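Hello,

Our lab assistant flagged a job as stuck in the queue for most of the afternoon. It eventually completed. Since we weren't sure the result was trustworthy after the delay, we are filing this so someone can double-check. Below is the sequence as submitted and the structure that was eventually returned. Let us know if re-running is recommended.
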Amino acid sequence: MLMAVHDGEPFVGEAVRSVLDQSFTDFELLVVDDASTDSTVEIVEGFHDPRIRLMRNEHNLGQVPSLNRGLREARGEYVARIDADDACLPDRLMRQVAVLDSEPSVCLVGAWMQAVDERGRRLGRLEKTLTDFVDFVYHTLIMRVYVSHPAAMYRRDPVLGLGGYDEATGPSEDKDLWRKLVLERYEARIVPEILVLYRLHDEQLSQVRAVYQRKVDGESQDRFLAELAPAVPATAVRQLLAGDPGTWSYDPHATLRGVELVLEGARRRLDLNADESDRLRERVLRRLLEVSNRRPWRPASRIVAAYAIARLPAGARRRHAVALATAPAIAAGRRIVRLAAVAPLRSRARRIPLARRLYGKAIGSE
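-- returned structure --
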């Protein structure tokens, strides 16, 4: 178990205790203290448990260099991540180890999470699944891989072989690493069970650096797309597949040619067989329809929708063609209903900082 912590006094004791109370007991808890100035070290040392290894940075290096230090020093075959403000439920390690033990092709395992606030009050659940390699590739392409870092467990040697975490990509170092695992054709799964309590609060790194995080995450995704297809207009394709409104500022024809390059590049680079390639293509086409249906009145959006419909299996074309014709009117009606329905939630999310990140996940803005 790997934890990097800087000034984690408010919650680190709960996090450590949740690890020590695991039903799976054959582990070490490697805590890398990043030059804390509060009582973090004293709290960790106070557990007097031989499974805890505490390493201390002389100077504050940052989370990602601290994680890389711990990764190099870890002794286990598998590395599970936990942040100092989160907590594990008792069967987390047992459930995730079982997946890695039973599926050699899987390198990365996540879990469902219960989001809580500073006082432990429930804010919502984060529940997604990954069923096979095509699923992993598809969700990576649309920037929706739901293996959250504090709920992740992975094989140590493959990650070290990739150089560990890229320190230039923090605080999106986890997503950058997952993309590299895709390129090496490793698989990922998510245990469909709440195994982590994910704490939302104003001071957490992902909240404080949210704008910068989106920037480096986008740059990492562009590099991933370029690995699949070097000639691709990466930013335009990335924004289209992610449903970013910025996509409509690009020439849709050029962007769609880029999508074709990415799909062909994925087939070759990831050694997809015919069935995998076909399934990935169909999912991407359906994704294009989903994105275009958000702005059906835009000419560029209708170009994207027509492109997708023309390439879907014959049985689905007529239904989607009818939907395309009626989409603007339907979208306008749905927008009115949606605005009315989410107004209270949006207002609450703006008033309560603790809810902002979960709200962002719910509407797909993060």
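-- support follow-up --
The delay was a queue issue, not a problem with the job. The result is valid. The chain has 15 helices and nine strands. Strands lie at 2-5, 29-33, 52-56, 78-80, 87-88, 106-116, 122-126, 153-155, 187-199.
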